[in-house]
Design goal:
Elements (H helix, E strand, L loop, with lengths): L3 H17 L9 E8 L2 E9 L7 H12 L14
Antiparallel strand pairs: 1-2
Length: 81
């Protein structure tokens, strides 16, 4: 759960990332993996997202395509395929 202390720490981590990685200004997609230990944000890894020259706009289009069927219910009592 994103509690107020966790959100404050996450905001500080984001500010630090923007300072240390100037290219993380939104023009280049980044793969950032993090978690929480108590109320502290733990950064596991950060790297530029590279997928055959995919741009942020192309990644957004991929998300939109995937989310089209997101409202379709998934039956939990059915057989696994």
């Amino acid at each position: 759960m994103l509690t107020a202390p966790r959100q404050a720490d996450l905001n500080a981590v984001v500010a630090d990332i923007l300072e240390r990685y100037p290219d993380s200004d939104g023009a280049t997609p980044w793969d950032i993996e993090f978690g929480f230990l108590g109320d502290e944000t733990v950064l596991f890894q950060i790297r530029p997202f590279v997928l055959g020259g995919t741009t942020l706009a192309e990644l957004s289009a991929m998300d939109a395509e995937m989310l089209r069927g997101a409202a379709t219910p998934v039956p939990l009592d059915g057989a696994a395929r």
